[in-house]
Structure formats: structure tokens, C-alpha cells
Amino acid sequence: MLTRFAPPNDLASTAQRIGATVAAPLADAVDRDARFPHEAIAALREASLLSAFVPQEYGGAGCSIVDLSAICATLGQHCSATAMVFAMHQIQVACIVRHAKQSAFFRDYLHEMVAHQPLIASATSEVGIGGDVRSSSCAIVHTDDGHGFTIVKQAPVISYGAHADDILVTARRTPSAAANDQVLALVRKDGFTLAPLNGWDTLGFRGTCSLGYTLTAGGTNEQILPAAYAEISAQTMLPVSHIVWTSLWLGIATAAVTRARTYIRSEARKNPSKAPAASVRLAEAVSTLQAMRASVNDAAHQYERVMHDPETMAGMGFAIQMNNLKLIASKQVIDTVSQAMLICGMAGYKQDSPYSLGRHLRDAYGAALMINNDRIYGANASMLLVHKDD
Is residue 77 within 8 Å of residue 360, measured between CB atoms? Predict the structure, then answer.
């Protein structure tokens, strides 16, 4: 029987328990075999964590963005694939919670989230457009009776698409609409098919199973979110993405520093009269980690303060701030894990060592590629040409 809701503190402790007892023991196998973390996601579903962001009026926990950030960081310390799947799912939940509650269909869907804990994926990128999520080539095609729609989208990446119950898809509003006149539609498991376009033999985040697919789907018009995607993207999808992604990267960095700290202590016990040579490097890694934690926590609290202020969120200053969070954290996670690798030396380099950091380092390098940093720098550069300092 699924719990209807729990206080945020209980959710955090539950995430820690699932991370330590379910996700962590299987993290290496999930990475090695590039397999979906079925066991950890099943445990999160059983604990009703998939509906953590659903408001309490619908039976969810009603947790905040700050709470979600903490859960992602916790899961990230144990298994980055589990944390990424959880984070990506919560981005979709946030879009529905914040932009579709005026729809009777989506109000019912929020209740369904709590009762059945469906896993929601996202199809925003597109072949020929790549990571530009604010443009679509595919379009909503309404059925002859005017009550439904069909869509065909070639997506180079749909994270855990084959394991998702439902998918949120971006598309042009109509076949004649401009590329940036987009809507977001929810397609259900019994209303879509996926034909693989490519495989997923990657350096890191292997357990997310983010293959590319040709998505063929249909549904009723009520499955299209009432708000324009431009609004959803600016106010929710992009800021929430950057916050939950950087939070799980913080978890990866924390796990790496924890291993480095444990290694240094083990070395110190061998010669108590002399501090290990790498102890100074550990101090540097901890400093970088604390700076990363501060920036992630500050961004989560900042978003919490302004998330109901559309004017602020529509401003260039807010967009630049959120973009910089992603840019900075994606570098800090690599720097921190690399420092931890140097501290542990061969013990961190070896795959069969309790201090192994190969998986953490490979995952860290994926951070800069999720919405490529060059694309974000380009967007910031364009905005800075006209943005006035606050």
C-alpha cells in the first residue's frame, strides 16, 4: 500500500535509506552493464517518492524545490543513474504541477501520480535541432474529429524512455506554427510506441539508458498542457533542471571526497606521526566541494523565493543566474572528483578498489554535455549584450 504523503524530513531519510541499501550496492553493476536501476526506482516508487513534489491537496508530499535538491544530492552520493532518473522525472512533475492544475485532466493525473507512481520521461531534443529545446520540427496534428492529436518525433535522446510509463513531448503547436511556438503534451504508455534510433554505450550515466527513438504517439487534446512551452521552459523546466542536475552532481562530488577522506585517514593510521602528503590536496577538494554546495543550495533557495513571480523569472538576470549555476557546477564536479582521484592515487584509479573513483569521474564529465555548456555560454553572451546589471 502506497503512503499518501510524508513530511520532507521523512522523505530525506527514506531517500538516504534507499540510496544506501538499494542503489549503492548495485551502482557498479548498473554502470558496468548499462542497465536501468530497476531495484532503486521500484523502491522509490514503493516509498511514494516519485510523487514527492505533488501538492498535499492531491495526496502528495508537497515538498519544496529545496527538498527535491536535497533528495537528488543524497541519491547522487550512492548511484548517479538512480539520481538522474529521479531528477529527470521530477522536472516533468514540476511542469505539470506548476502549469496544468487548471485542467481537470491534469488534476486527475496528479491524483494518479500519487496512487500509481508513474515514471515520466521527457522528449525535448530532436534530430536536426539537437539540444535547442526551444525549437521543434515535429508538430501536433489534430485528428479530423478535432478531439485528439497525433505526433511523430525523432528524438536523439529520451532518457529511460523504454522504462517510462508516460512521456512529456515538445512539439510545434500546429504544422504551420513557427519552430518556437511550442506546446508540451503528455503521452501515455498505451498511446505511444518507440522505435530505437541508436544505442547507449557511453562513458558515464550509463544506467539512464538514454537511447534515441522515433516516438509515434497520440492522445486527446486535454493531454496538452494549457500553458505555452515558452512559459513552462522559462519558469520551470530550465531552472528546475539546472537545480536538480547540479544537486545530483553535488552528490557525486560528495561521494568522491568521502572516499578520498577515508583513504587519507587509512594512510594516516599507518604512520600517525606524519600527515599524508595528499592531506593538503584533500583540504583543497573540500574547499571546492563546499563552494559547490553553497552555490547549489543558494540557487534552490533563490528559486523557491521567486518561483511564483513570473516577472522575475521572465527576466534575463534570472536566466543568466540559472545558466551560470549549471556552468559552474559542471566544472566543479569534475574538479572535485579529479582532486579526489589524485588523493587516492592508484587506489582511486583501480576499478577493483574500495576507493575506486572511475565511475564518479566518468559521470562527472557528462555534466557539461547535458545542454552543452557551449550552447549555454552562447545564450548568456546574447543576453549580456542587452541585459542591464541589477
Answer: no
DSSP secondary structure of 251-299: HHHHHHHHHHHHHHHHHHHH-TTS--TTHHHHHHHHHHHHHHHHHHHHH
pLDDT surpasses 60 at 53: yes
By the 10 Å C-beta count (0-12 exposed, 13-18 middle, 19+ buried), 199 is classed as exposed
* C-beta separation of 246 from 331 below 8 A: no
Say if CB 158 and CB 121 are below 8 A apart.
yes
* Mean of all residue pLDDT scores within the chain: 94
CA nearest to 231, candidates 99, 91, 379, 96: 99
Q: Order of strands, edge to edge, in the sheet holding 192-196?
A: 141-142, 148-155, 213-220, 192-196
Phi-psi region of 209 (alpha: psi -120 to 50; beta: other; left: phi over 0): left
Q: What is the pLDDT of residue 5?
A: 46
Distance CA 266, CA 277 (A): 13
DSSP string, 326-368: HHHHHHHHHHHHHHHHHHHTHHHH-TTSTT--HHHHHHHHTGG
Element (H, E) at 246: helix 238-270
Gyration radius of the chain over CA positions:
21
Whether the pLDDT of residue 351 is over 70: the answer is yes
3-state SS track over 21-36: HHHHHHHHHHHHHCCC
pTM attached to this predicted model? 0.95
Neighbours of 354 (CB within 10 A): 11
pLDDT tens digits for 90-121?
Answer: 999 999 999 999 999 999 999 999 999 999 99
Q: Is pLDDT above 50 for 346?
A: yes
Chain position carrying cell 503547436: 173
Q: Could you give the domains of the chain?
A: 8-118 (1.10.540.10), 122-223 (2.40.110.10), 229-384 (1.20.140.10)
**For the residues 344-372, what does the mean pLDDT come to?**
95
Give the pLDDT score at 17: 97
**Residue 32 and residue 122: Cα distance in Å, rounded?**
24
